[in-house]
Write a structure and sequence with these properties.
- The chain is of the alpha+beta class.
- It has one domain.
- Helices cover about 35% and strands about 45% of the residues.
- The protein has 1 helix and 5 strands; from the N terminus they run αβββββ.
- The protein has a 3-stranded antiparallel β-sheet.
- Strand 3 and strand 4 form a beta hairpin.
């Protein structure tokens, strides 16, 4: 398995776990929970340097006490060094 495939697999598992825990927390505490489509891709350039790109767009909004909440878009780029 290549390092790109490993990074994508680990990232996908992490996103799934995070979304599942956020959903459970949101339902139990009554937080606002707009739904977002998220894509996250990472690549390890060398054994000591990797990078990651993140993009998200809103799929639906949520309402709390009559106020509507929606995330239009979010994006980011991250670099990480490891020893």
């Amino acid at each position: 398995m290549t390092s790109l495939v490993k990074a994508l697999l680990i990232t996908g598992l992490g996103i799934g776990t995070a979304l599942a825990s956020m959903g459970a927390q949101a339902e139990s505490n009554g937080y606002v929970k707009p739904s977002n489509a998220l894509i996250r891709v990472g690549y390890q350039f060398t054994k000591n340097f990797s990078g990651e790109l993140l993009g998200a767009a809103s799929v639906s909004s949520d309402t709390l006490d009559g106020a509507s909440f929606k995330v239009d878009s979010a994006y980011g780029a991250y670099l990480e060094g490891s020893g």
